[in-house]
Amino acid sequence: MVELDTRRLSGRAGHSLRWVLDPMCGPRDMLVARWLFIRAIAGIYFSAFFALLFQVKGLVGPNGILPAGSYLKQIAEMTGARRFWFAPTLLWLAPESHLLIALMWLGLVASVLALLNLWPRLNLFVCFWCFLSFVVAAQDFSAYQSDGMLLEAGFLSLFFAPPGLFPGWGAERPTSRLSLWLLQWEWFRIYFESGLAKWLSGDPGWHNGTAMYEYYQNSPLPSWVGWYLGHAPRWFQIATTDGTLVMEFVVVFLLFAGRRARLICFFIVTPWQVGVILTGNYAFLNYIVLSLGFLLLSDFELLRLVARRWHPQSLDEAKEEQGFVPLPARLSALRYLKLVIATPCLLLVGYVTTVELIVMVAPRNPLPQSPVAILEPFRIANQYGLFAVMTHGRYEIEFQGSENGVHWKPYAFQYKPQALAERPRIYAPYQPRFDWNLWFASLGNWKQNSFVPLTQERLLEGDSDVLGLFAGNPFPQGAPRFVRTVLWQYWFTSIEQKRSTGEWWRRTLLGQYSPTLTLAPDGRLEIVEEADSLPPHN
Questions:
Q1: I need a surface site. Which of 30, 46, 280, 388 has the fewest CB within 10 A?
Q2: Residue pLDDT tens, the chain, 538 long
Q3: 438 neighbors 397 (Cβ within 8 angstroms)
């Protein structure tokens, strides 16, 4: 095999570069953390693809609410040959239901194989492209920070995961320090940028300590645990508000301290994330942050959880690794080629994510912005800002159908609050994208959320794919003549109301959210009644 003499890399500088970039010179005390993280990412991919199997046709299928085919056609008309870069999706082959479902199944199978540690790098590559293919074409149904988090972590995992069909712990093939640092950098940015977004937004709730007063009630998809915490005393809500800011602005900086400091950080942020998971259904978002947190730990801590006979290396060997490691004199051509490919990819992600952070505090900085535009279609270098502004009311859109325009039947939802006596559930990391989007739509009007009247149209047509997004069909004998949406405001019941009535929610009708629609005999869509002028809601 052709080999390259590394002595041509001069002295300490060349040594330092390989120490950072070359996987064979990478840390050998992160094997258990890497094994756990790759399993976690595979499991998160599984949850994403599993959920989409039941939703993708209704969301973006040919007869769905926002057909991917029509969207990609528009992109092709606007961008021509550049469409493959601006919209990097395998659905260019054929944006039909069979390919959509095939990609979800392919991603699901690949995630299971990666979970079983079978050729993890290849299977994570398959998962990445299948998920990116959906996200690029899903329009309103993929405009979530959680999707960007998964794509960024998934892309970096391609360089972080061990190679080979049966890598085991990957003790003979450690990871590069650069890929590890970028994953830790993503973890840090999720927290710190979210703190910056809260403070820079000017939201009074974060400045006066009241942000958590109605957080549990007004979160997109609350849980029953959140109901109880929503009735916690004021001092608890103020303490958690302040604690959130302290964690995002102070605690996360322990990442850059020593091993013991990172351990302390881990035992602060991990219970916090578990608490968020229990109190609100944010899909796989918090599971990604939770998984990235394991990269704060090294084998010093994690090997205690693994039986000694399964150790990838002894604790003594791990303790001996300090500073620079011995380097082989020669570098094979294959490894050199991998370095040539991986290094610019990782450095580009590092640069763009750094620029995205700097832009938050210095929008007019002189740093080149073209690399940001280059990576934007792939969503692998993102800016985060969770809960920057807290909502001040819980609003719910309800679809209703009627045969005569007088008596209306509601379409029941699978996950979002509707029935007053139904206990809010915990189902994350499963993500009901339609229910989730309706929470965002409820904060605006129907003209800003075109998928709402488009859903009404599909219900008038009796489309089975869209009906599958609901818990049931109130018109089993045929589609209704009229469909409208109304807007409710919801509140948690008090503890006394819950005890006396068994209801978790109370609500009041605010008015008609979107126009009442019907299909004319020639198939055209007609407006029967305009939407109401609703009071401000945000």
A1: 388
A2: 444 444 454 455 556 777 777 777 788 889 999 999 999 999 999 999 999 999 999 999 999 999 999 999 999 999 998 999 999 999 999 878 899 999 999 999 999 999 999 999 999 999 999 999 999 999 999 989 999 999 999 999 999 999 999 999 888 888 889 999 999 999 999 999 999 999 999 999 999 999 999 999 999 999 999 999 999 999 999 999 999 999 999 999 999 998 999 999 999 999 999 999 999 999 999 999 999 999 999 988 887 765 555 665 544 454 444 444 445 545 567 777 778 888 899 999 999 999 999 999 999 989 999 999 999 999 999 999 999 999 999 999 999 999 999 999 999 999 999 999 999 999 999 999 999 999 999 999 999 999 999 999 999 999 999 999 999 999 999 999 999 999 999 999 999 999 999 999 999 999 999 999 999 988 899 999 999 998 877 6
A3: yes
Tell me the C-alpha distance between 144 and 433, whole Å. 10
Task: Decide: helix, strand or coil at residue 81.
Answer: helix
Could you tell me which residues are beta bridge partners of residue 488?
A: 396, 509
Q: What one-character DSSP code corresponds to residue 222?
A: B
Q: Could you give the CA distance from residue 185 to residue 28 in angstroms, rounded to a whole number? A: 19
Backbone angles phi, psi at 141, to 5 degrees: -90, 10
Tokens of 346: 């990782």
Q: What is the pTM of this model?
A: 0.93
Q: Are 443 and 65 in contact (CB under 8 A)?
A: no
Dihedral angle of Cα 434, 435, 439, 442, to the nearest 10 degrees: 70
Q: CA torsion sign, 354 to 355 to 357 to 358?
A: positive
Q: What span, in angstroms and rounded, lies between the C-alpha atoms of 114 and 41?
A: 9
CA distance 246 to 240: 10
Q: What angle do CA 157, 132, 451 make, to 5 degrees?
A: 140
* Side-chain half-sphere CA neighbours of 173 within 13 A: 15
Give CA–CA dist 212/279, Å, rounded: 12
Phi first, then psi, for residue 173 (nearest 5°) are -130, 75
Taking the C-alpha atoms of residue 375 and residue 78, their distance in angstroms, rounded to an integer, is: 19
State both tokens at 448: 């800003």
Continuous segment of H or E residues that includes residue 490: strand 482-492
Q: What is the DSSP string of 335-387?
A: HHHHHHHHHHHHHHHHHHHHHHHHHHH-TT--S--HHHHHHGGGT-S----TT
CA distance linking residue 32 with residue 504, whole number of Å = 43
**Residue 339 structure tokens:** 């370095």
Residue 226: helix, strand or coil by DSSP? helix
Name the strand (E) or helix (H) holding 505: strand 505-519
Q: What is the largest CA-CA distance in the chain?
A: 85
User: Contact at 8 Å (CB) between 224 and 400?
Assistant: no
Q: 509 in helix, strand or coil? A: strand
Residue 222 bridge partners (DSSP):
280
Cβ atoms of residues 343 and 178 within 8 Å: yes
Smallest CA-to-CA distance from 37 within 298, 402, 315 is with: 298
